[in-house]
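Exercise (ungraded).
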Amino acid sequence: MQKLREISIPDSEKMQKVISLCKRRGFIFQSSEIYGGLKSAYDYGPLGVELKRNIMNEWWKAMVYQREDVVGLDASILMHPKVWQASGHLACFSDPLVDCLNCKERFRPDKAPRAKPGEEVEFVEGGKKRGRKRRALVERDYVCPNCGCPELSPERHFHLMFRTFLGPVDMLEELVEVVDRNRGLSRAELKEAVASVLERNSVYLRPETAQAMFVQFLNIQKSMSMKIPFGIAQMGKSFRNEVTVKHYIFRSCEFEQMELEFFVEPGTQEEWLEYWKEERLKWYRKFANRPEMFRAREHTPQELAHYADKCYDIEYRYPWGWDELEGVASRTDYDLRKHSEASGVKIEYFDPTKKNEKTGKMGVRYTPYVIEPAAGATRSVLVYLLDAYAEEEPPEEGKSGRTVLRLHPRLAPFKVAVFPLVKKDGMPELARKIVQEFFEAGIHAKYDEQHAIGRRYLRHDEVGTPFCLTVDGQSFEDETVTIRYRDTREQRRIKIREALDVVKKELSREEK
RNA sequence: GCGGCUGUAGCUCAAUGGUAGAGCACUAGCCUUCCAAGCUAGUGAUGUCGGUUCGAUUCCGAUCAGCCGCUCCA
């Protein structure tokens, strides 16, 4: 057997290499590139769309098809604005921020050091460690947390939800009229008047898929006769005006989520949280070459969101360190309760099998608690690309090293490539006949006759194609082809009529 | 949003105030019976806008985008 020696790649170079491969081989392109690109927006090319879709299909399979207690949902991205009022996103997503005019620090006023208005304070010019000292009067009840300077920009709100407007009528006229009518007002009052026009017409692109599952809880539970515990699964795009976008597709303003809301009886949330944490960790590791690169980390009390009583982050060891991939949160009954209060609709579950302690009769009514495993689909794409990317030294003298994507066969964009050894003697025709069988079976396959055979193997290694079938002279004598394995570079002969089954069998293997 | 660095062909990189070059890749053809062989020919680039200049890819400014750090990330 050939010895395949992997070249170790420093973390500092890994992202560059993966990004470059993704562009070169049609996985991921920058959005609107010919216009100079758009901040943190990326397009999934012909191979990227396959990888992303394969990951999402595997998630759907594990969440919905392979269990009885979860059903699916595909909600609209635009929802009634009251949804976001009730969920708290409208308020929380617009924290005021302030810039320090001295050291350029940006911070939240509520987290800044307190000070007395009118007091004189000393600070270093430019915010450096040493330098000329200056004094100034405190105007507000806080100073810059970095340099202590009281000279600050106005408090500004940063809306983290994308606002848009429903309805074809342009509100420009209305706005002009409001401004015109209120000429005498102060700036603050005018701002409020304009804001109210905007608010009245605004809808928002969802910042998470979760809320639709809470809002449709009753419809789904009743129409499908679901009994608690049960879950609702949804995949789709969400949008956030992130202050800082980072690390390629890791944090972008438009991203794709795979979320499960799993409703449980109050009091059982802890065990279900543990259950889902383990399930999700297992799921990620199933498709990975390096399962040890995934871990679950419990949130510290400081990190915990206001709606959660406990939360795990499923983290991956990215080239920049451990970072989030999925959050598995115990959200209590916060969301259902909020929507119940805001809408006036009683969102409860009636369990006829439990005895009511108070009345002694059968049947208990309660607001379910929810466990939320919320995964990043686009983050998963990055994670599996990083996990799969490898470079190898030449297996022996005179041969070539290679770059290989060791993707799980079910995640790989092409499942199989079919080649004629050379472009003559009827080999292309036979190879095309074989590839046609895969087309008809719905297995994504690629016919390739360009360049020499070795180059074709290596090109398909680079995009993660797990199996290559090659027609040669012998194929016409005994109806066999060679199957060549991506991970080992080994090959063996199989009967042509068995080729489809051999590939199918490899694809159905659970473990990587 | 701040600070630092960066932007030349699909990729990796070179050069210059005066005709922008290579390797790889790609295309066509020849050759080729299992791991990036060879030969011939070919396509293809200075992120965008503006300024200085006789002339700017080079100098300056703005802008867009990327990387690193800070900040942010209910």
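Further reading is listed at the end of the chapter. For now, observe: The longest strand of chain A covers residues 254-264. Chain A has four domains: 6-87+206-337+369-385, 95-157, 170-202, 414-508.
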